[in-house]
Amino acid sequence: MPGLQITTPADLNYTTKAAPFNLRLSPHPSFIVSPISVAQISETVRCAYMNGGTVSAKSGGHSYAAYGLSADIVIEMAGLNNITVDNADQTALVQTGNRLGNVAEALYKHGKRALPHGSCPYVGSGGHTLYGGFGYYSRFGGLMADVVISAEVVLADGNVVNASATSHKDLFYAIRGGGPSFGLVTTWKFRTLEAANVTVSYFITFKRPLSAEAATNAYLIWQRVCGPFPEPSDNLATAVVFSPADEEGTVHMRFQGNWYGPKEDADAWLNPFMHNLQVAGLTPILNATAHDDWLDGLRVFADNKPLDTPMPDTPDNFFAKSLITMDASPAWLIRNWVNYMAKEGVRSDTDWFAQVDLYGGKIGRLSHDTNAFAYRDAFLVYQLYASKAKESSSFPSDGITFVNGMLAALEPNPAGAYPNYIDPTLGISEWQRLYYRNETNIKILQEIKADYDERDVFKNPQGF
Ligand SMILES: Cc1cc2nc3c(=O)[nH]c(=O)nc-3n(C[C@H](O)[C@H](O)[C@H](O)COP(=O)(O)OP(=O)(O)OC[C@H]3O[C@@H](n4cnc5c(N)ncnc54)[C@H](O)[C@@H]3O)c2cc1C
C-alpha cells in the first residue's frame, strides 16, 4: 500500500512502537501499521481477512492489559486525529487517534462544549468509549458510550459502514460498551454537552493517616450520603481514594470530586458531609476551589499533565482489579477490606491505591438496553491498583496476590467488573460474567460477533 508506514520487529523503532503503557506486559505484534487514512485501514483489515491474520487497533494505548498491541497486526490510530465540532447541532466528529485531553481542549475551544470522559488526558477516545467510558461529568451527562450518535466502522472484511440507531443497529449497540471485538471504529460522532460554567473541585483530607476503624467509619458515612436512595444531585461527582501509610493498622484516605454549579450549592452538599465526619470524631480538612474555566477543572484531576498531550505519557508497571456494586456494602465487609489494606498494604512492596467512584445520576436513568454497557444500575465502582516504581521493569511477586486479597476482603463473590479496567488474569467464563453480567447479554454479543466477524479478525484475549 503506497505511503503506509509498517514497522516490524526488524526495525530499529519497533521497541518504542511496541512498548505498552503497562510495563508488566510484553506484547510482540508482527506488524505495526501507522495509517493516515480510512482507506489504508480498510485495505489493511481486508488483507488480514484474506490471509487469516488478526488485527487490533491502538488508540491511546492505555489498555491495562496492553490489548491494543495484542494481535498480529496492530493498527496505530494516532495518524487519524481530526476533530470537527458542529455547534449548530451540538455534535462532534472525533477520529479515534485522538486522546481525551485533545478532545476536551478542542470541544471547549469551539463553543464551550464538553464530553463526559475520564480524567487522564492520555487515554484514547477509542478504547475508552468502546467499553463505556466514565468520568466526573458522567453522573451529569452519562458515559462516553451513551453520548455516541453514530460511528464509522471498518468491518472484518475491510468494508466501511456507518453504525447508528438506524443503520447496522446491532453493531451500533455492541460497540458502545461491548468492547473492540466487532469492528474497528475510525470516527465517533458524539452529542456534545454544555461545559459547566463553574466546576467546584474539592478534596477532603486528613492531617495524618487514619486508623482502620476511623477510615471504615469515614467510608461508611460517605457510602450513606451517596445513597443509592435517595441519591445525590447529578451535579455531584464524588470518589474515595485509599493509599498506603507507613504504620501498620493505618491508611491514608481522601474524598475528592467536583460539583458542577455555584459554590454555594457545592457547600450545601459538602458542609453536612463534613459535619457528619466531625460528629464521628474525625478532623477532615476541606479544600474546594471554584473554576470558571472548564479546562482548569479538568486539569485538577489530570495529574497536572497538559491536556493536549504533547509528550508521551509516563508508563506504569501495574496490576489492577475492579468491582461494581449495585447496593451499599455491609459494614462488616468494608471493615474487613479496610483492615486488609491497613495491614497488608503496609507490607506490600508496591505503591497501591483503591479508588471508589459513585455512579448513578444520568447513567442510571438510561434504559438497560441503551447499549452494551451492562451495569446501568451500578452504585459504586471500585478500582484496586498496585504498581511498582514507574521506571522498574519487574513487578513484585506479591503484587498480584496483594490486589487479589484486596478484592477478596471487600467482596468474596464479586458480581460485576468494569471492562475498561481490564484484568487479563480472568478466565473466559469469569470475564464474560463479570463484564457483561448475564447469559442474555453474553449471547446477544456472541451473535453480533458471529454476524460481523465470524473469522475473528478482531481477535482479543478477552473479546467475543
Ligand atoms: C492512567 C489511566 C487513567 C484512566 N482513567 C480512567 C477513567 O477516569 N475512567 C475510565 O472509564 N477509564 C479510565 N481508564 C481506563 C481506560 O478507559 C481504558 O484503559 C481504555 O480502554 C483505554 O483506551 P485506549 O484507547 O487508551 O487504549 P488502547 O490500548 O489503545 O485500546 C484499548 C482496547 O480497545 C481497542 N481499541 C482501541 N481503539 C479502537 C478502535 N478505534 N476500534 C476498535 N478497537 C479499538 C484496543 O484494541 C484494545 O483492545 C484509565 C486508564 C489509565 C491507564
Automatic annotation (TrEMBL):
Alphabetic keyword roster: FAD, Flavoprotein, Oxidoreductase
Signal peptide from the UniProt entry: none
Cofactor: FAD
Pfam family name, one: FAD_binding_4
Record has NAD as a keyword: no
Family, as annotated: Belongs to the oxygen-dependent FAD-linked oxidoreductase family.
Protein name listed in UniProt: Glucooligosaccharide oxidase
